[in-house]
Amino acid sequence: MDMKELTAKSVAEAIGICYPECSLTKEEIAGMLETPPDQKLGDFALPCFKLARTLRQGPPVIAGKLSQVLSGEGIDHAEAVGGYLNLFLKRGNLAKEIVEAVLANPGRWGSSSVGEGKTVCLDYSSINIAKRFHIGHLSTTMIGHSLKRIYDFNGYTTVGINHLGDWGTQFGKMICAYKKWGSREEVEKGGVQAMVDLYVRFHKEAEADPALEDEGRAWFKRIEDGDEEALAIFNWFKEVTLRDAQRVYDILGVQFDSYAGESFYNDKMAPVVEELREKGLLVESQGAQVVDLEAYGMPPALILRSDGATLYITRDLAAAFYRHATYHFDKCLYVVAYQQNLHFQQLFKILELMGCEWSKGMEHVSFGMVSYEGRALSTREGYVVYLEDLLNKACEKALAIIEEKSPDLPNKEEVARQVGVGAVVYFDLHNDRTKDIDFRWERALNFDGETGPYVQYTHARCCSVLRKAESFLNIEPDYSVVTDDEAQDVLMLLSRFPETVRKAMDNNEPSMINRHTTQLAQAYNKYYFEHRIMDANDPAGSAARIRLTDAVRDVIRTGLYLIGMEAPERM
Ligand code: ARG
Fold first, then answer.
1. Dist. CA 444 → ligand 1 center (Å)
2. Can you give the pLDDT at residue 229?
3. Bridge partners for 437 per DSSP
4. Do the Cβ atoms of 27 and 8 come closer than 8 Å?
5. Exposed, middle or buried: residue 415 (CB in 10 Å: 0-12, 13-18, 19+)?
6. Is 412 an active-site residue?
7. What is the mean pLDDT of residues 333-348?
8. What pTM does this model have?
9. All domains of the chain in start order, with CATH
């Protein structure tokens, strides 16, 4: 039940009557319909200057003519104002149509089957071994997770891939340091931090004793050659890193279908390099093998070093072929910070030059940087915020607020977790992903304004209304009472939710759903404060308002779910 579509249909009919020679389709008209800034100007508006050329008449004339013949299911009336045709929907009808459509399929409003039979691979989070998970990884993790849910919701088969950064000479150094100064217990106990400490020590000691570097390289060579001891230590480092990361993933509710990382492609690069050579794309440059991309305004892509070593992009080339062969993806998304823009441009260009049609389905979903309380993060300056600490702190702060606001709430700890984590996730996904983010506690955890707790609280408010509504549940609702401006706002937001979901998917932009859900919460709160939901003197009207509340609850919950947040029923 899409109001825009219905309206477009009526407009098309009106055009058909006034201008029989015009052949605009419903879909084309739907594309022209706008949402007026003020409800007094109608629920939809058709800017007739877009038709002036085709119909060879002035916009006010067109609007005037159409307004006179316009009628149709769900349309109350139309007004010509300037060059605009303003359309007003029948309100009682509208409420019934939309609310009943939402409630007919709980949890599915806005879903679709456009992706049926199609597969999308999503490369996100993609952490590095022996590095701690800090807040710089939040966006890739949460944007990727949210997109996975959005594509799922639209019928796609989704494959979540954590492309682990588990290859590089640093791992040789780490093993070397571990053998010299480390112990199994320390690493088991200290986790990734213990490995980081070892690595830092390696660099300090190597300044005094450069021979250490050679030892480090020798250990890396042993990993490359498949030496048993080296591999055992390396794999154990991986295990420990993933165990630490898993704690964060569990808090966030994030999962993956594959952890095939860089090292997974060790034996899969040779054929790709061979193909590059056969296709005449590899050229030698100072002993190294590169793909020249000058014609496309890019620096050359280094594929093999002069010693034959492979690079990050070599692995990504192999990964692209592997993913295509394994998953037959229609789309393959890389949720990676914008610092890697060039890397992905090069990657996609090389695949195109190799003649891979399927590379058209690949996309770099880039995003901005996160700073913390007004300051850029810097490992070098020791200004780092670990994600696990941030999330734990968010839960603690949320618990303190709950203790104060609703001390009698059952399972406070669990709700505090949902609210604390939700606040962080919401904050991360609130603005266009390409914008930089400055994380601020007093903004993230505020219960007012555009925040996670505010939207969750509105959902809990709806649940609370519904808990008290039992005596009205079996009464036939009378939707003719749901015609006021506040209700109209709520209804239009419900009705447009599917369109927003679709746009969010087309743009790989979860923030669109975040903002739409926030607007819905705001509109409902306004409605709630200005109208009595339950009125014993008007059971049928109450039943209608309760069903509206239920629809809002359902769609807020779906919106939160799609951005990766939970929706507690009590707060
Ligand atoms: N591990 C990389 C990093 O932290 C991100 C990997 C992204 N995925 C990819 N296929 N290149 O920078």
1. 28
2. 96
3. 370
4. yes
5. buried
6. no
7. 97
8. 0.92
9. 3-89 (3.30.1360.70), 168-253 (no CATH), 387-562 (1.10.730.10)
Instruction: Check residue 71 and give its pLDDT.
Output: 86
Task: Please tell me which residue in 4, 65, 96, 134 is annotated as part of the active site.
Answer: 134
The per-residue pLDDT for 534 is: 96
CB atoms within 10 A of CB 31: 12
Q: What is the 3-state secondary structure (H, E, C) of 452-513?
A: HHHHHHHHHHHHHHHHCCHHHCCCCCCHHHCCCHHHHHHHHHHHHHHHHHHHHHHCCCCHHH
Amino acid at 335: V
pLDDT at residue number 6:
86
Q: In a mutational test of the pocket of ligand 1, which residue from 123, 126, 329, 344 has the highest number of ligand atoms less than 8 Å from its CB?
A: 126
Q: State how far the alpha carbon of 57 is from the alpha carbons of 30, 51, 562, in Å.
A: 21, 8, 45
Closest CA to 147 of 456, 519, 564, 434: 564
- Count other C-beta atoms under 10 Å from residue 451's C-beta: 20
Position 158: which residue type? T
Instruction: Enter the tokens of residue 280.
Output: 């005449």
Residue 165 CA to ligand 1 center (angstroms) comes to 6
As given in the structure block, the two tokens for residue 446 are 């505020």
User: Could you say which of 131, 179, 268, 503 is catalytic?
Assistant: 131
pLDDT-derived band at 1, boundaries 50, 70, 90: low
Looking from the CA of 45 toward its CB, the CA atoms found within 13 Å total 20
Q: Calculate mean pLDDT across residues 526-534.
A: 97
Give the distance (Å) from ligand 1 centre to CA of residue 552.
39
What pLDDT score was predicted for residue 39?
82
Catalytic (active site) residue 131: yes
